[in-house]
Amino acid sequence: MAQALLGCIADDFTGATDLANMLVRGGMRTVQTIGVPDRSAKIEADALVVALKSRTVPAKQAVRQSLNALEWLRAHGCRQFFFKYCSTFDSTPRGNIGPVADALLDALKDDFTIACPAFPENGRTVFRGNLFVGDVLLNESGMESHPLTPMSDANLVRVLQRQTKSKVGLIRYDAISAGVEEIRACIDELKQDGVRLAIADALTDRDLYMLGKACRDLALVTGGSGMALGLPQNFHSADLLVYSGQAADLQQIDGRSVVLAGSASRATNAQVAEWRAGKPSFRIDPMALSRGEPVVDNAIQFARAHDETVLIYATSSPDEVKIVQRELGIEKAGHIVEEALASIACKLRDAGVRKFVVAGGETSGAVVQALGVRSLRIGPQIDPGVPATQSVPTNGEAPLALALKSGNFGATDFFAKALKAL
């Protein structure tokens, strides 16, 4: 069996599919696993993406999970490794980006890596170390109100330095725009100055391709999915990878479908509002769940009563989320919603649903785990950062079609587009 070339560790499930989408576009046959597979699992692919649910867990737990994933990927022969996090650098002063990057560097016995969350296709750019979402700084984009990882500082050098004892530097746009050799010269200077982690500016896809080439010899690269744009070409250039025009091919899956939304992001709020304007929807009320009301059963009855696809959502405005969090606590508020949507997904699957569109990273993680999905084949892109995927059956069960969307991603009509793609 051919060994994989690129081994990837993603800190959430939708981020993993986002990354895998980029690699498929680069001609790499890509399989995404849900968590770290059993040691005996053998998977044929050019790129392997291990999807963790480690973004908001305690830093020590995130490090442990990431190191376990690294060990499995190394056993599959991967030549380079990629640590993927959100294009809005979702984290806190305690981590988890810095601690995980440090631990992976230590395990690989290397002394330098870059950090670049830029994703220009989705409006995420980095200039002079500051992260922009569209035309506004990160801390003015709505991310300052994120319920779990509020981002109040757009300067990623400062953000990352708070999370690590390693020295953090910056690869300025001057070097990026000058090309590969200038980037490598900048990296050498930073290493001589004791820098171990460097934020990299990027404004366009061209910048990401240049960075990818410049990082050819690094054992570890970190960033958002955009940073993976230039990595497949390194393997092509080294004659290790033959471009596969069928890398995104998936089989046809028949059956009913459902849309599940748990994210409170602006993008998902707009998508929910678009759907509700003319299609059936059922709202999950966290307070009703906490009182023990039969919300899950009511949602199932609602779905069964309609011949068309329904939306079942817990999406709320930031102010509404804060009210629930004050009543229930941040952790419980999120957990009961994820648990409810995961339970609904399982009951609907048992009733014949085979196609799932899921909005929100935490929600997607809860749903795929509850459905028992262990790995996904990655198909064509639906919207930037969101591909169609298919579960890989392990015990003869029927495969499922899934679109797992980060809360911040997708056009306003994403749900309809995803259902058409599946």
UniProtKB/TrEMBL annotation:
Molecular functions (GO terms): ATP binding; kinase activity
Domain of life of the organism encoding this protein: Bacteria
Alphabetic keyword roster: ATP-binding, Carbohydrate metabolism, Kinase, Nucleotide-binding, Transferase
Residues covered by the Four-carbon acid sugar kinase N-terminal domain: 6-230
Domain Four-carbon acid sugar kinase nucleotide binding: 258-415
Coiled-coil blocks: none
Enzyme Commission number, as recorded: 2.7.1.217
Pfam families (alphabetical): NBD_C, SBD_N
Leading EC class: transferase
Reactions listed under catalytic activity: 3-dehydro-D-erythronate + ATP = 3-dehydro-4-O-phospho-D-erythronate + ADP + H(+); 3-dehydro-L-erythronate + ATP = 3-dehydro-4-O-phospho-L-erythronate + ADP + H(+)
Family from the record: Belongs to the four-carbon acid sugar kinase family.
Role summary: Catalyzes the ATP-dependent phosphorylation of 3-oxo-tetronate to 3-oxo-tetronate 4-phosphate.
Protein name listed in UniProt: 3-oxo-tetronate kinase
Taxonomic lineage of the native organism: Bacteria, Pseudomonadati, Pseudomonadota, Betaproteobacteria, Burkholderiales
